[in-house]
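ok so I'm stuck.
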Amino acid sequence: MYDIKLIPKSELASTLPLLQLLNESISEATLQERMNDMLSSNYECVGVYDKDKLIGISGVWILNKYYVGKHIEPDNVVIHPDYRNKKVGEQMIKWICDYGIEQGCIASELNCYLNNQQGVKFWINQGYKILGFHFQKKLIK
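replied:
not stuck anymore, here's the structure
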């Protein structure tokens, strides 16, 4: 069994190596800058530990939107490659959903890219349903 807990804000730099697995083209400095900004916007991060080794992370946002109400959003979910297919992700998402319930959330929502077929399958297996499309428009070229 793994230890799952919120990572103290003072220790969030420990997540940078795992975050870089999501998109290696984003520099560590840019990730750190973005993280610093996110911390002022209700951002938290959950960590999964195998003893003292950080093996999985998920950002967590608690939001309130007209169409769904108060909900929790897992974001940038990453499991270290050596620990994939070992139920680590499932345990972390259960922890996040339980945490959301404790915080008064009535739902959990997230984004997953269409080209991430493993991710789509994972989320469906966790009980999530596909409701729509994720759109983006670049404002600066």
